[in-house]
Amino acid sequence: MLPEDVLARVEDVQVDPVVAKNDNGNFLFINLETGDPKFKIPPSLRWRVNREKMRRALLHGIEDHVHWGRRVVGIDLSSNPKQAHLVFDDKSLVTGKMVVGIEGSRSTVRQILRPDAYSNKLLPVRFTGVAVDLTPEEIKPLRSMDPLLFQGCHPQTGTFFWFSMLETPQVNKTAGTGSERYRAQICMSWPVHTPEDEVPSTDEDRLSNMKRRAEGFVPFLQHAVNKIPDGTPVLEIKLADWECLDWDNNDGRVTLAGDAAHAMTMYRGEAANHGLLDAFHLAAAIENIYDGNMTPRDAVDYYEKEMRERTRRAVLLSRQACLDAHAWDQLNENSAILTKRSVVGS
């Protein structure tokens, strides 16, 4: 789907090029109280990339076709039966043959297509996370678990922990200097049982909450959380999903893709994969339209049918994985968070 030079640029923005060349890590799910692995699954080929750098890699050569700072507020489908007119917040219009809403889980295009049922389903779990700089000594016990990422659950509290690499000294150009640093992501989530489980409003209180919930972790993990500096921004991610409901594509003139079409939680790590498959199948649909093999309506109907069959199940599995991740006693080889990712209906 991507030209070889673009794919090479994407490969070059992996968070740890050394590990990428010889990845001997495992998919680890650990007991946060003891640090012992509960599940240890050899990984398939893993590409963990820097999101912003990957975006720049994909934009290479097409920068002039991407317009930032534009916000859609409406779609005019009545002026011409073969066109769609996007209405922006600055009152400007753009006319085309097809609108594809790919603007994330809070998609305006989705809201226009399904004004009665566009809202995401909020799950009873709360999630916060930080990006933090660590010295080689500080990150050593974390990377000894796995050089890229690992996750786990505390058996007593149901608190979930996620660690992943963002940058290595080789990537951020501090290697060989007196100030070598790694950059990592530390995230935690927990079930909501009482109002006190809601996410605080300030970074200071959010960080205090993370440190409090790390009490009872195996010492090296509790230490990692406690060492997060005061003043670190703490991001909340709303855990919610949307099951790719039906909508009227207006004879193939409006459709959805990615999180706009099937928002899902990250606990199975497959949302981006489905977005890539959406792009592949939508490109094929557009090619069939331009080649005269299918009408716009038939091509988009076919695209949407495949996507719904594939992603409705994936959304529900990811929802269950989110719940499983916080229920230690219910975790087993058949849990949604651990079962093999498979694409159904593609």
Automatic annotation (TrEMBL):
Species this protein is from: Aspergillus sclerotialis
Keywords: FAD, Flavoprotein, Monooxygenase, Oxidoreductase
Protein name, as recorded: FAD binding domain protein
InterPro entries cross-referenced by the UniProt entry: FAD-bd, FAD/NAD-bd_sf
Cofactor(s) of this protein: FAD
Keyword Isomerase listed: no
Keyword Transcription listed: no
Molecular function per GO: FAD binding; monooxygenase activity
Domain of life: Eukaryota
Residue intervals of the FAD-binding domain: 91-315
